[in-house]
Amino acid sequence: MNEPVLIIGAGIAGLALARALHHADVPYAIYERRTEAADAGLAINLPGNAITALHRLGLGDAIAGAGFPVLRREYRTQRGRLLFGIDETAFWGPDATPHCVRRADLHAMLRDGLPDENLHLDLGVTAVRQDETGVEVDLSDGSTARGALVVGADGVRSTVRRATFGEQGVRAAVLSAASYRFMAPNPGVDCWAAWIGDRGTYLLLPVSPDEVYGFASATGGGPAAPDLGWLAETFTGFPEPVGQTLKAVLADPSRLYHSPIEEIRIPRWTHGRAVLIGDAAHATAPVWAQGAALALEDAEVLAGLLVGGGDAAAAAARFEQVRRPRVTHVQTQTDRFSKTAGLPGWVRALTAPLAGPAGYRAAYGPLREWSTTS
User: Taking the model in full, what pTM does it have?
Assistant: First the structure.
């Protein structure tokens, strides 16, 4: 492949693809309209398949030494009663133990070793054109770039997706229309811990012994209003350690990051020499923490198909064939859990001890193994 792969977006998907292409000596260039990630001060939960993908990208030692290993997962009622727990290390195996890390640290891992001249920050894409021999993008500074393939790794509001497929596919998540995310002092949490109430779900996940990452959303498709009153009204009365972290973020709202939870469901990810990966192709609600995981997998699969200098359009089409069944599985399991979370509390309390572990195995079991070619 003589012309470069044009990667639009320098988030997790884009950096992972760049890393995989760099190590395979495939030419590439990244274009990112921001100078830094909008939510890099927050953390991210990386389940076992994300850890496996990082190993395959040569970052096994880096992720092992970062963040906090998530050895156990617990689901509780809004009164604090344990519904069920999962031994995550036993499920995934010691080499794929989930981790919670700061997004900034993950970005730094993925970027480490990439040539600066291939990364163009503060330079967005305004238009995409393609022909039989290549693809051309217009850039926000008035210049153009030409390559063999354009990859939309530019998130839910993807410019490449709009330019290629039009305005389609964006929908509010079944779980909740929006969420709050935050960092807070660790009140003693040592595992993935969620409290599910009639109106909202509150998740805490340790990033270190001193700090937790938090996620608060509505349930059953309800709104998480962008005001502190909604947080206080929805979660006041939940047990500790929810109360401690809630008090901390309400006292310092600068800790809070409020945003809609939007999903992408579109029938095609490829068109000729344009292909979508990561959230641009298939953003899902963070029920199973698969946003980063699927993005990392996408990157390795696409890079593998591009190695060898074959036809870029054929590689893109093959990429969608390989990845579509796995993504559909995650979307189906996400919708299933999101609907269950919206059931009355007494129904969840009655069914969760058996249905919860079964649902966890159904969602994650097929994700423990995956192929880059089939």
Answer: 0.95
